[in-house]
Amino acid sequence: xxxxxxxxxxxxxxxxxxxxxxxxxxxxxxxxxxxxxxxxxxxxxxxxxxxxxxxxxxxxxxxxxxxxxxxxxxxxxxxxxxxxxxxxxxxxxxxxxxxxxxxxxxxxxxxxxxxxxxxxxxxxxxxxxxxxxxxxxxxxxxxxxxxxxxxxxxxxxxxxxxxxxxxxxxxxxxxxxxxxxxxxxxxxxxxxxxxxxxxxxxxxxxxxxxxxxxxxxxxxxx
Length: 222
Ligand SMILES: Nc1ncnc2c1ncn2[C@@H]1O[C@H](COP(=O)(O)OP(=O)(O)O)[C@@H](O)[C@H]1O
Ligand SMILES: [Mg+2]
Hints:
Oligomer: single chain
CATH topology: Rossmann fold
Order of helices and strands: EHEHEHEHEHEHEHHH
Number of strands: 7
CATH architecture: 3-Layer(aba) Sandwich
Bound molecules: adenosine-5'-diphosphate, magnesium ion
Strand order of the largest sheet: 3-2-4-1-5-6-7
CATH class: Alpha Beta
Number of helices: 9
């Protein structure tokens, strides 16, 4: 079972969006929602389906929930955390995470805000990458320059930047409203391809080393 932690102490970075979309793409998945305001739980309520399994937890119930996932042969667990998650909570969950994704908008201030989470992951010696999310979809020099600057800034925090990035896509927002994943709602869209690509990267990282997810190491930045 692979456990993917979504963490970023910045509101609107894309933790919940990526958690639920990756879970839909992964199929045999559970979403664990640590956010007391329950955004992923709300998405699941709108969805009205029994998969991915969605469970709201706190520190006391987390390990029992992992046991439940393991005994039900769930392959993927995506752990969504609140923006104001304490360092203690994140350190606790990091002990069990195969990989941590730190989503960040590519703006300078966004990357700086993600830096404290990146330092924490690095400090715990855990596997983690920053994932740029919400990149302006237009191509060209402006976007390239923005990403280059953001990568330089991200590297200061000592974690690699994932080479799979997610643009700002209306399809992602629309699918959340209907309780779907974008891979279901618009399977041929650019947004769906980006989520698919991020999931494929996770598969390589977490299962690609003789099937032992604890042996993964995060990739070096591009
Ligand atoms: N790549 C994206 N394209 C379009 N909208 C996005 C994207 N990522 C996030 N959003 C939207 O931004 C808002 C905040 O995202 P969310 O996943 O809730 O962030 P977080 O969980 O980190 O606070 C949501 O309304 C979500 O639909
Ligand atoms: Mg959220």
